Amino acid sequence: MEWRFTFPTASLLMHMLALTSNQAQARVFDIIKFGAVGDGKTDNSKALSNAWNRACHSQGTSIILIPSGTYLLGPVVLMGPCNGAIEFQIKGTLRASNSPQLGIDHWITFRFIDRLRITGGVLDGQGAASWPYNDCSKNPNCKSLPVTMRLDFVTKAWIRHVTSLNSKNFHFNLFSCKDITFDHVTITAPADSPNTDGIHMARSSNVFVRDSVISTGDDCISLGPGSKNIKMTGIACGPGHGISVGSLGSTPNEPPVTTVFVRNCTFTDTQNGMRIKTRAPSYQGVVQDITFQDIIVKNAGNPIIIDQQYCPSKKCRNQASKVKISDVGFRNIRGTTSSLVAVNINCSPAAPCTGIELRDIDLEYDGRGGKASSDCKNAQGTSHGKQKPPSCL
């Protein structure tokens, strides 16, 4: 495998430079002037929606300003398309309701927008009120819970220096997006908070996550069906469940996950490190061209894991996954593992993994009772350089 991914795209860089240079001429829509009150008690949903509508219909670049203060905000959908670029500038804190909000799947949603910049400030999801109700793994009739920020059908967006605290569900969710950059984002929730994925994406392409700290109760970053041309660098993950491709195969006709590059990341006290997971049984699917490179793990469980028997409900039938995994590289992976099986490549007998590469692996078991080992099933590939534990390929 040879990595040819270039990112950010030229069009996105040109957009960001243009947006920055045009700020002096941009119109500012201060939510205070639309009736917002930053006392942490007043519902500012209408004020923000009115400011958004005015900005969206204005020509040229517009800035929506959330000044210093704490602004209580109910669920809002900020719709495009807009007549110009939008900067959503948070100087203070946006705070969600302290109620569970069962049956509501969003808090702040941006939809059908081209050229969006979200900068600074704090998004306080007040998730503790909802976590006891997050029981979908065992309750088929569970109700949806709000995602802190949804981006649906958004192109050319930059999320920078934003802090997301204690989401009720996922912190960020991307669906059908293109040319998105997360830059110096901080995501925080307790290790036992359920389903609080840091960044989840599906059917999205050209996504770049860089130089960010993600400490949460589920996957730091998770890639659903249709994730393509994804790059992650400089991510500090932990606690959490690691960086995951999947789970995949739960629905028919899922688009493939392809061309993913993860580099210079650190996993500390995570349940998993680098993970690919598919359901069993499953529908057909494809995972191809995935690279994990220059990774440090510190007391991480399952540092390297391909799990094609993923079953969160623990009630799955004993059938094989039909998701085909190929061309996956683990290169220069080093550190300590809290599990004896440091390299666990459990592929499907119905669609064996091909093109798996282990190169320069140095993982030591951080505990008593033996040395770290490797375990491979239904996997074909090659090993190069140092192999600690000894390769199973």
Automatic annotation (TrEMBL):
<keyword id="KW-0732">Signal</keyword>
<keyword id="KW-0134">Cell wall</keyword>
<dbReference type="Pfam" id="PF00295">
    <property type="entry name" value="Glyco_hydro_28"/>
</dbReference>
<feature type="active site">
    <location>
        <position position="241"/>
    </location>
</feature>
<keyword id="KW-0961">Cell wall biogenesis/degradation</keyword>
<dbReference type="InterPro" id="IPR012334">
    <property type="entry name" value="Pectin_lyas_fold"/>
</dbReference>
<keyword id="KW-0378">Hydrolase</keyword>
<dbReference type="GO" id="GO:0071555">
    <property type="term" value="P:cell wall organization"/>
</dbReference>
<dbReference type="InterPro" id="IPR011050">
    <property type="entry name" value="Pectin_lyase_fold/virulence"/>
</dbReference>
<feature type="signal peptide">
    <location>
        <begin position="1"/>
        <end position="26"/>
    </location>
</feature>
<protein>
    <recommendedName>
        <fullName>Exopolygalacturonase</fullName>
    </recommendedName>
</protein>
<dbReference type="InterPro" id="IPR006626">
    <property type="entry name" value="PbH1"/>
</dbReference>
<dbReference type="InterPro" id="IPR000743">
    <property type="entry name" value="Glyco_hydro_28"/>
</dbReference>
<dbReference type="GO" id="GO:0004553">
    <property type="term" value="F:hydrolase activity, hydrolyzing O-glycosyl compounds"/>
</dbReference>
<keyword id="KW-0326">Glycosidase</keyword>
<feature type="region of interest" description="Disordered">
    <location>
        <begin position="370"/>
        <end position="393"/>
    </location>
</feature>
<comment type="similarity">
    <text>Belongs to the glycosyl hydrolase 28 family.</text>
</comment>
<feature type="compositionally biased region" description="Polar residues">
    <location>
        <begin position="375"/>
        <end position="384"/>
    </location>
</feature>
<keyword id="KW-0964">Secreted</keyword>
